[in-house]
Design a protein that fits this description.
Order of helices and strands of chain B: HHHHHHHH
Distance between the termini of chain A: 86 Å
Strand order of the largest sheet of chain A: 1-2-5-4-3-12
Number of helices of chain B: 8
Strand content of chain B: under 5%
Structural class of chain A: alpha+beta
Radius of gyration of chain B: 16 Å
Shape of chain B: globular
Number of strands of chain B: 0
Strand content of chain A: 25-35%
Oligomer: heterodimer
Helix content of chain A: 25-40%
Largest sheet of chain A: 6 strands, antiparallel, barrel
Largest sheet of chain B: none
Largest interface: A-B, 39 and 38 residues
Chain lengths: 282, 180
Amino acid sequence: MSKPMLTSRKALVAVVGLLVVTSLLPIRYAKWVGVLPTMLARNLSVPVSDPVSWASHKIRPTSSGPVEDLSAEQWALQKQDYDRLNRELWAINKDLRETLAALEAITININPKDVRPVEAGVVNFNNDRNNPVMLINQGTRVGIAGDDPVVFRTNLLGFVEREPGLLNCNIQLVSRPGFNLAVILQPLGAPPGEGVVEDRARAHASGQYFYVDRSLGHGVEPGHIVWSNDDRYPNAKGFLLGRVTEIAKHPDRPLDTERIIIRPDVPIGLQGRVMVITQRED
Amino acid sequence: MNWIVFAIAAYLAYALQQGLGHFWRIGDHEPLLPLILLVFIALQGSASTVAWAAILLGLLVDIETQGVTDLVGPWALGFLAAGYTLLQLRNLLFKDSVFTIAIMSLVSGVFAVLVPTILYAMRGIGFLTGEGIADFSAAQQLFDGFLMLVYTTALSIPVGWLLLKSKEAWGFGPRARGMR
């Protein structure tokens, strides 16, 4: 006569073996083993465990957390700390949002294999409205050449002067009056080639913005991104000049022409670290 | 042993363990009711009864705690080791004494804690799962386990007394001298 299951030694050995296996299962599989018995046991225990739990919470109420005995000065200092932390987090959040917006706007028009970005620090900025120039701490020694574009994140700031120095060089900023650049205006996030308007953007005499003059019905709207597409500066193609912020009437031909105002996303000339997009030599 | 009585007792142990967690917690430590139940059964029941009861009670602990991981098995094996220890020692003990239950809760509990700790630690070994548990410290686990056992030992005196009073209902058969 066969032994009942519960007294069978073989069954016991098999169960122990199974338990060893389930004990050493990878977590992703072990979860599946435990989910059904856990759910079953928890649901079945509710008629007893819930009233008991309710009673135990009545007898021993849940603590609302440690009470801190702070003086008014300590409290003010703590609040100051939290406020500072809050400001820092806010700044980080803002920075991340701007970076994300810049990444959304980026249009890669250059082959990354052809260029080599060089990081540089801005050591001086003359803040001259008529000839804005910033000095960076890298030069020809690291491969920088004349007319190399200088960018911050995805924003175009300027171009290296024609004859850069060995260890440092001046950057002619794009905001200098009279500077012009072939650009493409395009709705943000639009597929390549869709809604594209090609034109030439000019820096305003104030150095605060760029503009493009177009006949009525040009189709450009505020929010369009504007990026460099100038054959004179092939390594700058795709970098942002700014965004269209407003469409104004042309000061001289208000009846048939509009002036598209483009403002840069970042303050030009005020960045601490920038990238110089140099041509790869090898 | 009457398995229906066992099922009711195991159910109550599990439900009370769930419901009283907040009430009797000291620091992060709670007593382990199923262990007291196992000690009581191991002192009275037959060897195979003890083995199966240990596995079932251990499984209840596995699915009740799920603290370190979601694993099912380590505590069941730990309880099996505890049950085996009790079977080896019980002929030397006064099986109807509440103090025996208390002392054996501590002694057998060491094995019940040791086995899952070893199994958790083994998970970090490359040729097994190679999937160590994050922030797992065997020393901390053993220390916590020891404090839990001390607490369980204290609780086992009233619970053990209640269990001994209900002994008739369990239907343990007569056990001859020297029988396991």
